[in-house]
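Good morning N.,

You mentioned wanting to compare the apo and holo forms, so I went ahead and generated the holo version with magnesium ion. This is what I fed in:
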Amino acid sequence: MDKIRMMTPLVEMDGDEMTRILWKMIKEDLLLPFIDLKTEYYDLGLANRNDTFDQVTVDSAEATKKYGVAVKCATITPNAARMDEYDLKEMWKSPNGTIRAILDGTVFRAPIVVKGIEPCVKNWEKPITIARHAYGDVYKNVEMKIPGTGKAELVFTDEDGKERRETIFDFKGPGILQGMHNTTTSIESFARACFQYAVSTKQDLWFGSKDTISKKYDHTFKDIFQEVYEKEYKEQFDVLGLEYFYSLIDDIVARIMKAKGGFIWACKNYDGDVMSDMVSSAFGSLAMMTSVLVSPDGIYEYEAAHGTVQRHYYKYLKGEETSTNPVATIFAWTGALRKRGELDGIKELVWFANALDEATVETIESGRMTKDLALITSLENVTVLNSDGFIKAIRGNLESKI
Ligand code: NAP
Ligand code: MG
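and this is what came out, ligand included:
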């Protein structure tokens, strides 16, 4: 078979540690033999971010704006320990945070459902997709430690220099303080991204916030969603028989546990960060969760929802065998290739992406899997493979389809 040709390059963002090792294996064994792979490569590995003063992250996000589709490997977000480990000039910000701030999108996370890996929540029959607002709130906060007695105030100065002031708290002793913001534009585009994704995947949309306590901040999210729904999406929802459902986040959480799945759960930034880990682990494994950032102007950045799997990497460096699950990273590549194929009208590329997804799922369903899945599967006679062996098994399945 001739290799599948591409027209427009994918923006390829390489990353760190164990996922960087998997990245190379996936390209060599599952992509390059079949596709004339066109990518514009950006090395977001921590060493190169440090060498370029993190300019490479900004450049990769700008390239994503230019080409429209990116695929990203997991990357280290530096902390104090990483400063020494990588001899860093600065504690560089989270690349995902930088990319999200430039693309201003919504992150959709959905579990990859396979037979033999049953969710711990018995009634979850279909995937629950989390839509996480990727801008503002606690991720763009300003914080202070308050040493002692004094008054904390919220001050807004408008363009004419006029001030509005409210007392936050009269401290009588030490404490802590935090200021957060969001913008109407960003919340509107979050709402649109969610309604649009619901329409394109034909799923209901649920949204919850703490509007009873946060009568201005969270209530604004609720109001904007309602307005965007009524003005722009209600008709389409009615035609497709879809439902938009708003409730207090407490009620949403309780209902999620009783639901069957098969809908999108829109979450404010922090809720989405935390709840996506709960949903993914309840569906089986962090390594079986996909993630895509969709910007309001239709730009897509695909990645795995998990991190760089540091613990496995240190074992790998010692020459020990590792069985790290590459599935979410494979699905990041297939998501990006499928979208590129759709945008450029390359049917073979779309077909290939679907075939690789199926080959991956079928490998697991035939009882060959990595250790994380072997520990939780209901299948019998399972073969536990290391990462390389598992990728080779997928390759075998893929070749039989081609
Ligand atoms: P992690 O890399 O997601 O791993 C946490 C644990 O989950 C692992 O130790 C492993 O459990 C299990 N796990 C995750 N992915 C797996 C896979 N593919 N196959 C098998 N097991 C898997 O999170 P972390 O250890 O907290 O973070 C490591 C680094 O990743 C940090 O530097 C963090 O900044 C970064 N990070 C990056 C992103 C991103 O780029 N999107 C997201 C999160 C974290 P066992 O050890 O029990 O096997
Ligand atoms: Mg998280």
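Residues 74-77, 96, 286-287, 303, 306-311, 324-325, 372 surround NAP (ligand 1) (CB under 6 Å).

Happy to go through it together on a call whenever suits you.

Best,
F.
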